[in-house]
Amino acid sequence: MTVTPSRSAAPAASRRIIIRVDLACGVRIGPGKVALLEAIARTGSISGAGRALRMSYRRAWELVEDLNQHVGRPVVSTAAGGAGGGGARLTPAGLAIVTEYRALEAETAAAAEARLAALEAGLQG
Fold first, then answer.
1. Do the domain assignments include residue 2?
2. Average per-residue pLDDT in the chain?
3. CA nearest neighbour of 13 among 123, 124, 116
4. Domain of 61, in residue numbers
């Protein structure tokens, strides 16, 4: 896991920790993949999620496929386009990734608050 505090000397409300998790199964989960999954859930499509994040469809699809391969089951379920449209939605595995990552992020930020404040104070003095 990589934890990166923000570099600003701003108040505690703007401190943040960025987390990337490398799991034993080989999957890497970080803010980019989680934001993509959230955008897929919000827009109902991989292409819409890519547009929302200013990411090419190809890149968005590659990230989804990387997750699918390493998780061992689909994280996004897709339906082919055509007259009825198409679309994508998160599977239970995809939803679990988002839920657990966001919980880990919140718990880590809360646990690290005192250390971040001390680090900031040390950098200012």
1. no
2. 86
3. 116
4. 16-105
> Is 78 in contact with 85 (CB distance < 8 Å)?
no
pTM over 0.85: no
Nearby residues of 98 by Cβ (< 8 Å), 6 or more positions away: 34, 37, 38, 41, 90
Largest Cα separation within the chain, whole Å, is 64
How many domains, the chain? 1
Q: Which two tokens stand for residue 41?
A: 């859930």
Cβ(37)–Cβ(46) below 8 Å: no
Average pLDDT over residues 82-103: 89
- DSSP secondary-structure letter at 76? E
Does residue 84 form part of some domain?
Answer: yes
pLDDT tens, residue by residue, 19-52: 999 999 889 999 999 999 999 999 999 999 999 9
Angle at 124 between CA 19 and CA 104, to 5 degrees: 15
In this prediction, residue 82 carries a pLDDT of 60
